[in-house]
Batch of 4 targets.
Target 1
Amino acid sequence: MNGDIVKALGEAARFHPGERVRLVDRSPIGHYRVPTYLRNATGRVEAVIEPPGIDNEEEGYGRNAGQSRHYYRIAVSMTSLWPGYAGSARDGIRVEVFESWLEKVDA
């Protein structure tokens, strides 16, 4: 054994600041926590929100059983959301998203 501590599911953040991620698109629309205009958007992780939190979506259906994972602050550029956006290329939106709504985007 190398002495490393293995963390349980949800204790270690799956994503890290600076990583590119995509907000997934799910159907049907139900008790979901991500606005439709942000689904399939690509952004960067700005921050990992600590401590891990309960999955409110699963909790809303009575299926959570105390499972905790991380929320992340994601920065999405306005130009990626709305083609032809006339504002500054630096403009963006920040949204806090639960881990189950994110997937890693390769470079």
Target 2
Amino acid sequence: MQFIDQVEVEVEAGKGGDGIVAFRREKYVPAGGPSGGNGGRGGSLILEVVENLQTLLDFKYTHRFKAEDGSRGGPNNRTGAAGRDRVIHVPRGTMVYDAETDELLSDLVETGQTFCVAKGGKGGLGNQHFLSNRNRAPDYALDGLPGEKRQLRLELKLLAEVGIIGLPNAGKSTLISAISAARPKVADYPFTTLVPNLGVVRKPSGDGTVFADIPGLIEGAHMGAGLGHDFLRHIERTRLLLHLIDGTSEDPISAYQTIQQELHSYGRGLANRPQIVALNKVDAIDPDRDVEAIAQQLRQLSHVPVFLISGVAGIGLDQMLHEVWQTLAQLDELATINH
């Protein structure tokens, strides 16, 4: 499945039906008056969030959407039929922007949530609407109004509470497969992960928390280097960042600093997001290397908890997850107090 997380589309609502000019011609009504009906309203364009979509792939080949026009009015004061609304399905986490002004129109995060992106035009008035004491036989009607037309940019930002970040080959995909039922592709070369992977991790209470493995962060990611520019936006929705560092790399401290610099450069508050650091692959580190000294350096740099783990061997995962649950609980308490 291709992962498409940003598209531009054109939407156009239906035109309102025209009003008509008509007069009554019944046999036993000698003073027949105007009877032209109003046109029906045009259909609207509506976005609706559905559960079974994960990407914006459906929009890759279809860029233009139009709703049905309203029908013209009929004689005997009959109003034309309204155009049918067109409902477009989108995944949870879709943000809707006006492509021309860059204004955020809606943030669609709940299944079943809807948003009207283009309203149908009003139907025109038939000549019966203009009947008055001064004008007993109006011979004009109004055309229906055009529907709204606009260019939209749809962006998908994954809805995950915990974002797993780190340089390529830090073991992010292996970790998410170890702590959840997700089964991402894992291999020993850079950029194995080309799309974000989601996994649901069960808390001791039985509730599930969504973790996202964010790929492609390297030095210069905020400027488009590697794959990071495309996926840094997905971290914006996370409440907690789990920074994974390859313990077997030549310089784990430099690896930590590289990612932190990218978060600062990208902005949008990512550098201030709560973090937990995990030194991964401790089962494969050279025995002569002082792992605890590296961990201590990371604690001094980050001022956050640092855990020694192995996604492959399952070392230290319970302690790390315990810290994740505690941190999320504290964030919940702060949110309650602030509200």
Target 3
Amino acid sequence: MTGEYASVRTGIVGLGNIGQHHADRLVDLGVPLVGGMDIEPDARTRFADRYGVEVYDDYHDLYDAVDAVVITTPNKFHEEYAVAALERDLHVLLEKPLAHTIESAERIADAAATAKGTLKIGFNNRFLNAVKLIRNRAERGEFGEITHIEANYVRRRGVPSRGSWFTRRSVSGGGALIDLGVHAIDLSMYLLGYPAVEEVSGVTRSEFGDRDDYAYLEMWGGDSGPDGFDVDDSASAFVRCAGDRTVSLEVAWATNRPATHEFVVRGTKAAARFDLLEGDLTIHSASADGPDHLLDTTIETRENDTHTDEQRAFFDAVTTSRDSGGGIEDALTVQRIIDGIYRSSEGGYTVSLGDGKPDPQGNRERSDYSSH
């Protein structure tokens, strides 16, 4: 095999749908896919038949054969596979979220701090062409100071698969907030420039997924009913950062409202509004150049495969040391925000993440969760 990534022998850990999604793109990029690992025999058989590579039931055997791994397992197992790979100085592309708990995420971060390999987290939405365009214009100062992000990732009916690991807190770490919110939070913080997080407040709800009469049209992975459903299916939250920069967040697997994937990036000179799934982008501004007027500019961008571009950035970092971000510090900040929202909802108070002082209510000591 020839090509710029041909020297990076790569394997997949977790051979389900998302593992195959990544494998298809590895092949398209000319990355040598040399093996896969899964504890399920059927998953191994399907993967071997589809890609013609060795498959293993033990990650040690896979790690002996590769230079890099893409980890796409359920959240609870991220730590085991990622830490083992980092300790062997392998390069790791780890699907979001970083882990199922903040404690597990911090152990991954500790391993990454001393590892020689590259670690990137699967924040693929950063690579949407509309987001790239907004970042380029922001860097040129066209938005002025970006002060607030309105982030929506709301499905009308979209619980992934009731009865699967997605809907069991012990394996997933949460529901809609940790599944969809991780994307919305990272993208918001990314567009703000990842300022230090000061405090979060939020409410998570479980209103639909645990019902016998949950009405839906389709469900990814099938429906095994409400038994064992112990996660949130929606969340509303507010994040306050240094310099009074803020994020308002709405995420849901299920709600009685139309779906929306709209993000609004508000700046002092202009704002941007875009659809996370469709890529539609409009720039809003006002001008006193001549008669006072408002400007709404619709911009069309070429559709792009964000996972392919994410993989390209990962292998560029591996082979050339070109770093496009999306590393452990950002992922750990996102995990701390998610953990803070869950604690805020459980305790009914704002959770401070910045300076080590006690909460005004005296309910809980703050953690030193400043991001940078």
Target 4
Amino acid sequence: MVEFRARWSALADGIEAATPAERDRTVDALRALAILGVVLGHWLVTALTARDGSLATTSPLEHMPWLAPVSWVFQTLSVFFLVGGHVAARGYESARERGVSYGAWVGQRLGRLFRPVAAVLVLWVVVAGGMLIGGADFDTVRSLVKLVLSPLWFLLVFAALTAATPLVARLSPLWPLALVATVDVWRFGLEGPEWIGWVNVAAGWLVPFTLGAAWSRGAFARREPALLLLGAGSAATVALILWGGYPASMVGVPGAPISNLNPPTLAAAAFGLAQCGLALLVREALARAMRRPTAWAKVALVNLSAMTVFLWHQTAMMAVTALGLLFSADLPGLHTVPDSAGWIAARLLWLPVFAAALMVCWAAFRTYEQAGRRPEQARAARTVAVHRPGAEPAKEITRV
């Protein structure tokens, strides 16, 4: 244990020394918190039940609606889009100043997003095909593949907004927010067609993305605008849930007639405003925390493999669930119906196992995310190493 602490301290000191003094570490901290929030949220509100020789997807939110506040804590996508808009707007302006073309800039950014996606898709095409050829139940394969693919929708939206940064970076968040409200009035108030709701897939996430772009321009240098976002967003969310007929859960619930997330509703957009306001308000506290080398090292390492963690966390959970079937088809918190406090307690005990499985996926597939670094990033990577023989250098931490 003493040796491990010494190595970790040495690694943290190396990462601290390799980090540029001008880097805003709170941006990385918020991104890491957003990714980990999504991962933990999925592990807590997604369940695979064993029934008649097959696996079916369900959720504790379906059986225990009083757990809806859990989704308020772990549905952190708005913070991810806030950070994404901030980084994209700042990065694009920096690229313009350096004479980098739009094509080169967007190609580099989208490459970082989609390179690790290819590994997930290839593996699951092989796995799904093998399961079907081996006689696996079709509904089971469909449930598993749906869990893997469902998180990818947000990457497509994020990629589209990133590519549109030159067009939307200076757009007021009020415009997409008004569009979300108009679509919801049409859908729910005027009984318009259901397909019109998919307009909000872009408009809903454009709200925090443009807030992030405004942040890059200094719009939140004072606390008052962030306090306004938190207060107005919270009040609007409560009003929409209590009197507007919107569900309390900020994630989709199987069997529910309305989902706040698929596609995003006005309630989700209002909740996102509050969440972004809170994120902007805690920047000073995060900045103080990130001055500690060990705290900063954890955040930096998460950010190095953020997409790998996001893309493989569902696979890790499913792998543990499938392996559990070798021992029993009725393991509490893993295969059983999530309808009691006992299931919650058991699921919490499974979280470290999911995390261990995710670490295996991370070790196997992180290279796909970290490939294609720029030469200066590769040089930065070589400046940080774990101080033991044969250790692999820690990957670059200067990426924006």
